[in-house]
Amino acid sequence: MTTSFRVTLSPPTRRWTELHDAMRDARPKAAGFDRRDTLAHPAAMLTRIGPWRIDLLEAGTLWLDGGAMFGSVPKPLWAKLQPPDERNRIRLAMRCLLLQGEGRRILVDDGAGEKLGEKLRDIYRIEYQEHTLERSLAAIELTVEEVTDVVLTHLHFDHAGGSTRRSQERLVPRLPRARYYVQRRNWYNALEPNPRERASYMRENFEPLAEAGVLELWEGPQRPWPGIEIFTAEGHTRGQQLVRVAGPEAVLYYVADLIPTGSHVRIPFVMGYDVAAIETMAEKRMVLERAAAEGAWVCLEHDPVLALGRPRAEGDDFGWAETVPAQALSAR
Questions:
Q1: Three-state DSSP class for residue 99
Q2: Domain positions in the chain
Q3: Read out DSSP for 215-243?
Q4: What CATH number belongs to 12-330?
Q5: What is the pTM (predicted TM-score) of this model?
Q6: Per residue in 301-322, is it b (16+ CB within 10 Å) or e — as a string?
Q7: pLDDT tens digit string along 1-36?
Q8: Where are the strands (E) in 174-289, listed by range?
Q9: Which of 87, 190, 248, 267 pairs with 19 at a CA distance of 20 to 30 A?
């Protein structure tokens, strides 16, 4: 469990420093956790919500530019939270959500996949030494053939690149028996991306799904399965969809790039990648207010250390009441 903190200083420069110091000190160090402690943590036992078994699957890591990940936050602050490499990149997870129940196995996002050429693998420092989607599924005795549905939060390559694979001279669905779901607005955004996002939308990741007849386009909020709510948050990219899973045991949010890492729980911490930062801040506030009121857990897709956080209000901002390291869930 992390320590709590509150920021009360008003001068901007001191406030940034206070935010940074509090968040740095509050982040748990995975190496310092004892297996007995992590297994005793309530979220480490969060294995079922309603009819759904909950699993978080690691699909590899990538390194993106730290300045782009933190937008207007000064580097001296974010670099201490998440230290960059020699090319100013910070390490990020690609963490997927798997829901099993109601006769279905539903995967939310599927990582970057393994199709990128040498140049892009170098730029984004894609790493699979520790995790791949297939190995993570195998760890719970599943294969890609057993996934029935794939909900793609959006079609950026690090969220949807694992949707397809090369088979000889063709591109085919990587999860061959699944149907894939994306917002219609995001689909058309991906087909005709704006200049800021053009590099993130790669047609090889999603056009083969339409060609194979396994893609379904959703229009706005959905309730496709019991206890599962789909809602949109479009400041990061138009048509991004997020997932809420609710049951008598708990509530879990999968928030994709609305809150990519634990550091981004702060309302002003917005990525430079976002197409509409002001919208992101408003959407983040609405989700965090709702999650805090419910005592819900938030899954952090890109944080390499923290897998889950339980948000709470901190004055006019938000912080984490509790956080759970990825190590705790992999050890359960």
A1: strand
A2: 12-330
A3: EEEE-S-EEEETTEEEEE--SSSTT-EEE
A4: 3.60.15.10
A5: 0.87
A6: bbbbbbbbbbbbebeebbbbbb
A7: 333 322 222 333 444 444 445 444 444 333 332 333
A8: 179-183, 215-218, 222-225, 228-232, 241-246, 251-254
A9: 87
